[in-house]
Amino acid sequence: MRNESLIETLMPKVIEIVQEVGDFIITERRNFDMKRVEEKSPRNLVSYVDKTAEEMLIDELSLLLPNSTFVSEEFHSIEILDELSWIIDPLDGTTNFVHNFPLYTVSIALAIEQELMLGIVYDPLHKEMFHAIREHGAYLNERQIHVSKTNSLNDSLWATGFPYQDFGKLKEYVDFFYHLIKVSHGVRRLGSAAADLAWTACGRVDGFYEYGLSPWDVAGGVIIVQEAGGKITNFTGGEEVLFSKEIIASNNLIHDEFLDNFEKIYFSI
Ligand code: IPD
Ligand code: CA
Ligand code: CA
To answer: Which ligand is closest to the CA of 51, given by its number?
Structure first.
């Protein structure tokens, strides 16, 4: 109960902070100079925009909740949750941002005693604020959202992502992709895992799967999907997704059918 009222009080303030960071990202994009892009490692891009956005979030969220700690992509990329942890991706879809491909997001989650309690995914270009509080439903701006009602793989549309670095399972992954496009309405690659999850939550796609992800890519979107009535598992159907580096999100109705197809091909070798 104490946590519940704490989170309800926090949400509008966190939304305001995220909006401010979104405005910063859009403003910087207008005059963005490719020369300011660095490679953290091959194909893993970053710029001052990611770093400054993360600093802004950490400064403001620390003021809001002084005892909290951070798991975040640029400065706190540890994978341990404390009693009160923010899990932050300041700019999810950096490759899109750098190429001016118009979809990137800010993703924030708050975990209390290791449980995700609040999630936000903000697409600043389209002014879409997805947000959810545990057991209070999921919203897109003011409107409550729900996952789709599609009840067979044949009628479903999927989103996925491809790894930039860990190519260990790429062959199996592409084999499954080849299979999925023949037994569904198709597969999209948005370039922001947080958007993939948010779009699953509001039914634009029926599900999303990807491997090689970090907790900050998925934390905000996971609770939004769950609160919109969806299901989240790892590739073997287990519940751990924050640190498992693999995720399947769906509208629940087609989760088992997807998993059956996936396991047969992905784990066949
Ligand atoms: C990436 C995006 C992308 C996914 C990558 C992530 P970043 O995050 O979420 O969709 O395919 O695996 O690393 O680097 O843009 O924050
Ligand atoms: Ca990311
Ligand atoms: Ca990022």
So the answer is: 3
Quick one: pLDDT at residue 269?
61
Number of folded domains that form the chain: 2
Same domain, 122 and 174: no
- SS3 (DSSP) at 22: helix
**CATH number of the domain encompassing residue 232:** 3.40.190.80
Centre of ligand 3 to C-alpha 89, Å, is 5
| Nearest protein Cα to ligand 1, atom 15 | 93
Q: 192 CA to middle of ligand 2, Å?
A: 7
Atom of ligand 1 nearest to the CA of 213: 12
What phi and psi values does residue 230 have, to the nearest 5 degrees?
-90, 180
User: How far, in Å, from the CA of 193 to the mean position of ligand 1?
Assistant: 6
Q: 128, 177 in Cβ contact below 8 A?
A: no
For residue 7, CA distances in Å to 35, 45, 75, 243 come to 40, 33, 25, 24
User: What residues make up the domain containing 204?
Assistant: 153-266
**Any atom of ligand 1 within 6 Å of the Cβ of 213:** yes
pLDDT of residue 1: 46
Strand arrangement, sheet containing 231-233: 186-188, 157-160, 207-211, 246-250, 231-233
pLDDT mean values, one per 10 residues, the chain (269 residues): 82 98 97 90 91 98 96 89 95 97 98 97 98 98 98 98 87 95 98 98 98 96 98 97 96 98 89
Where residue 247 falls (left for φ over 0; alpha for ψ -120 to 50; beta otherwise) is: beta
